[in-house]
Design brief:
two-stranded antiparallel sheet; single chain; 93 residues; alpha+beta; 13% strand; 4 helices
Amino acid sequence: MRDISEFIYGDEYTQKNKAFEAAMAAIEEKHQDYFQSRPAQNETEPHDRLHNHYALSTASGQVSFRFNEGSDLPASLKQECLDAFHEIWKEWE
């Protein structure tokens, strides 16, 4: 069965979304000591996770990225996330 996002947005979106998820996982892995030293944001996780700090949304053919209100990630880590977003999504319309 195909990914629902592929059905709705097409193959290019699906491929970029998978690339973005992989980039964010790599950022979290790079900073694993930071995340593992922080308390969990929800009871199903043993420690904080990068996905607790951002939202990726698609509306009217536009993909947007934002940090959740209250995210206290260091500026340098936020910049890594923004750079990954712009690198992967800059050409999608």
